[in-house]
Protein: Cyclooctatin synthase
Organism: Actinacidiphila bryophytorum
Amino acid sequence: MGDHGTRFWRVPGNLPVVGHVLRLQRDPLGFLESLPAYGDLAQVRLGPWRAYVACHPDVAHEVLTDFRRFDRTGPVYDKVRQAMGAGLATAGYHDHRRQRLVMQPAFRHEHLRGYVEVMRRQVTAATADWQDGTVLDLTEAMFELTTKVALAALFSSRLDPHEARELRTAFDVFLTGLTSRAALPGIGRLPTPGNRRYARALAHWQAQVRRLIAGYGEPGTGHDDLMSRLLAARDEEGRALSQQELSDQVAVLLLAGGETTSSAVVWAVHLLAGRPDVLTAMRAETDAVLGGRTAGFADLPRLQLTGRVVKETLRLYPPGWLTLRTATRDTTLAGHRLATGSMVLVSPYLLHRREDVHHDAARFDPDRWLTGPPTTRGTYLPFGAGATKCIGEEFGEAEATVILASLLSRWELTPIGGPVTCSARLVLSPASFRVRLTARPAIS
């Protein structure tokens, strides 16, 4: 892939005060895709901060896996943890290591069958009142569905439609606000209507998490769900998760289980609409495997094309499109000296669309996965890499496969309206995606 040890450049277009923030806000994905032209490590300005973007897979892998030099620390992570807590997705390496050891048993493969059964029931219930000819916003519908799955898997509980809408609104406001606060440190202190909305949304979200935990009931009451496993979990010294740690983990699991999986499903439908040949082949697979019913655990090994569609969707639209590490010591990266405290950004979106890594990279081609995942490190990172790789990878891939196969086996989802608008917040999601439902004929 070339001599990536020496190529470094400062990205032009650095404006006073804001640096490259406006370009990142106006066209974040286009801006990121332009950066490899400036080297394997590109320097940008985010407000008052100098930051570096790892544009080469080897450089990205180094940043994500070497915790002696790069960690989830610094002022941006301080702000993120104020909003989301210090759960698995935000904790620094040492805290993350303990948390992961405690939580790992809840995500063992043997529990997947039970979780997929939760998914199957929730998909069946969510689509029970769908009617031929109805127009719906698939982004909203899938977020509500995946949030219900996350809640049911966590708490064996349900969320009514009004609560789901409130949760969605709170997510929208605080995720959008959090992105700008992370980039411009002073913006959150201004007494603006947007800041007041952000504060209300964040308070609502945190209160909702506390209510869910408080209403769960006593441990050992017969629940067979994630929460019972988290309550029973102990670290190497026999310590349980504290109440604050439990709250932080639940917040992260709800966010990851709701926003990221729903975005993957919607992007898949969007991409399939542009490849009718793949859509036809996928329908043939779901007809043969499911025969019009909702997918379950036993169907997953046979839904091979659907699984490849999910992987390819996560390549083109990775939910975690941008992640940050901070240099914890003076070091060298891609031949360039970095001072302690330097911010390094890794963008799976950027890396997944490099032509020298993925042939015809912009093309949606699920068959590129017939030979398995890439063996070159740092080239496929939808779930991260190293010790902080997403603990729910198997859960998320299974959920997206179950939902996508179940929907497309029974419904035509015809996009209507203009092009999809991408909302690049903490999660890369379609802002809105309206589709018309057409019931497919029953399979005899």
Remarks:
- The CA atoms of residues 274 and 425 lie 25 Å apart.
- The domain at 8-439 is CATH 1.10.630.10 (Cytochrome p450).
- Residues 243-273 form the longest helix (31 residues).
- DSSP finds 15 helices and 13 strands in the chain.
